Amino acid sequence: MSISIYMLLLATKVWWGKKRSSASASASASALLNLASRSTNWTMSLGWWTLFAAGFLFFHGFAATETAPNYSFMHNAMSAPTLSYYDYIIVGGGTAGCPLAATLSQNATVLLLERGGSPYGNPNITKMTSFGSALSDLSRSSPSQRFISEDGVINARARVLGGGSCLNAGFYTRASTEYVKQAGWDGGLVNESYQWVEKLVAFEPPLGQWQSAVRDGLLEAGVLPFNGFSYDHIYGTKVGGTIFDQQGNRHTAADLLEYANPSGLTVYLHASVHKILFARKERKMPKARGVVFRDAKGAKHKAYLKKGLKNEIIISAGALGSPQLMMLSGVGPAQHLMSHNIRVVLDQPLVGQGMSDNPMNAVFIPSPIPVDVSLIQVVGITHFGSYIEAAGGENFAGGASSPSPRDYGMFSPEAIEETAFRGGFILEKVTGPISTGHLELRTRNPNENPSVTFNYFKDSRDLQRCVQGIQTIEKIVKSKAFAKFRYEFLSWAMLLNMTANAPLNLLPKHYNPSMPLEVFCKDTVMTIWHYHGGCQVGKVVDPDYRVVGVDSLRVIDGSTFNHSPGTNPQATVMMLGRYMGVKILRERVAN
């Protein structure tokens, strides 16, 4: 395997840590130049991706509030009764499901079913220094479940109360006003719902030297104007919010359950929902009436809706989980369902369609000076359809007990000094995207990943946005503001070559410095975990998120999005949970 891949894999120095004596600047420069000039072939393995993803995902944040709140309504599903009744049953305690449940509990009885565990009290989640342990954990109890799309891009989905807000970069920024208008949302209620979320989980980040250099480099690159600190989506460069507080503790969507009425809410953890139950006799349309779920020991439980025209089941299982559960319950493309011996409740061919994942491409920049640890804090919102973000730092989890890359035999006999592995990433994310794919079942087991194809860069407009994004990153790296964080002897071509030779995905490699950036974009595409679609508004659900053709069933989460909102979607997904909870309660008391 090429040593050049370790420039990208190990530059973060994340959880392998273990400081060693520093080398001289000349020795470091020699090592870097040697690495940058290499372009040997390698064989991809999931193990190498785990190491890279752990490093990169640290930049994208992984910690949680240290002190567990006293949630009297939260229980292990093994304590659930065999049969129970509620006004609302929410499947999925994620980024949308938690604020939705907290809101509905104010005036109704609510059951929230989460297939994962609690984010509280687990040091692999709550401690930033232990994040790598959680990301590399492939067990069934891990808060992160790996999947690989048919495109060959390695990805992850959340399996924990709080959902993706427990695994992401922590960046908090709202959707644009145009997005809100196109969605047909009530602007006033949207703002109130954002503010409701922000009171508990959003903060202004402290800006260090690396992020400041990226900010000023963006301005030199022409991503203007500078809009200061703002949660709003504004063209130009800004400092966004974060769900990390000043002590570095993560505040997730699970924290929004603090708003809940304890007497109105029941949360079951490790509760895997296998199907939605429908009533069909003497009805023009099937009516959702209950769910079947299993606890960690496999025991079956059933929960039904109480009698009442306003009572509903709401799926908030995410962009993979929601269309998957719809199909497992008999709502989806009839031929596909019958091929899995699933009884068809409603032939809905658009379930699982419109799957999109915003492609991300990153460049690692080795630094001659130490880089302060930072998550995503600054963003450049361009007019050409690309968002520029950055993360940096070294030796995040250093410690005597931390394993070193050398401990795993990752290096050739050549001595490569630690100063060759400090720096940070600058990345670009394509807005939209325009390219779409589809999702299908692999098996009837809801705990197994479905098959998903995103068709990255299928539409040439997405590819051109990536090219312009990479060109903007080049301007930042070459800017005066960024000068102290780059080695003069490492050309832009060398930096691209180091990235292109890293095992970032399972795709075959073609890129070399003589090739156009389009090839670089295709070869180095990664996920930024902003995938969406599968139960889209106007196709599967109506503007009020009711499933078309079925009574008493809604889908409220990112699977309903036609495009990803804002630069990073979590703020809007949390807002949507609150927003729809308020609307549903208003409908409940009307008439």
From TrEMBL:
Cofactor(s) this protein requires: FAD
Domain of life: Eukaryota
Domain Glucose-methanol-choline oxidoreductase N-terminal, chain residue ranges per copy: 318-332
Membrane spanning residue stretches: 48-65
Gene3D superfamilies from the UniProt entry: 3.30.410.40, FAD/NAD(P)-binding domain
Keywords carried by this UniProt record: FAD, Flavoprotein, Membrane, Signal, Transmembrane, Transmembrane helix
InterPro entries to which the protein is assigned, alphabetical: FAD/NAD-bd_sf (IPR036188), GMC_Oxidoreductase-Related (IPR051871), GMC_OxRdtase (IPR012132), GMC_OxRdtase_N (IPR000172), GMC_OxRtase_C (IPR007867)
PROSITE patterns given in the database record: GMC_OXRED_2
Record PANTHER family: OS04G0573100 PROTEIN, OSJNBA0019K04.7 PROTEIN
Family membership: Belongs to the GMC oxidoreductase family.
UniProt protein name: Glucose-methanol-choline oxidoreductase N-terminal domain-containing protein
Species in which this protein is naturally found: Hibiscus sabdariffa
Lineage summary: Eukaryota, Viridiplantae, Streptophyta, Embryophyta, Tracheophyta
